[in-house]
């Protein structure tokens, strides 16, 4: 099976990049293995308890991707710089299925992918 990797750098509700990534990933899951790597402010995307009023709930969208089989990983330095911590990759403030791992995961994801999409501001 082919692999698609999506790299996000912007946080939720700043622009439409997270929603666009969700739509691409959701459609791609029918034919691709999908990886999503959260870098810089994108590490805020999987935060639990989001309650946007005038926007789609980005956390819920990414929860759906994770439950459909997408691999979602966050940069550890970016996450810890923004107050997120993890034990064995699991962050209690994150939705289920998202792990804080290593920048080496990003390198591996890109190397093993047939397609890579980077969405940034």
Radius of gyration: 13 Å
* SS summary, helix count: 4
Distance from N terminus to C terminus (CA atoms, Å) equals 30 Å
Per DSSP, what share of the residues sits in E-state strands of 2 or more residues? 15-25%
> Helix and strand succession?
EHEHEHEHE
Placed side by side, the strands forming the largest sheet appear as: 4-3-2-1-5
Principal-axes geometry comes out as globular
Mean pLDDT across all amino acids: 96
Quick summary:
By secondary structure, this protein is of the alpha/beta class. The protein contains four helices and five strands, in the order βαβαβαβαβ.
List the defining traits of the structure above:
121 residues, alpha/beta, Hypothetical Protein Ychn, Chain: A, 5-stranded parallel beta sheet, 4 helices, globular
Description:
The protein is an alpha/beta fold and 121 residues long. The protein contains 4 helices and 5 strands. Strands 4-3-2-1-5 form a 5-stranded parallel sheet, sandwiched between helices. The model has no long low-confidence stretch (mean pLDDT 96).
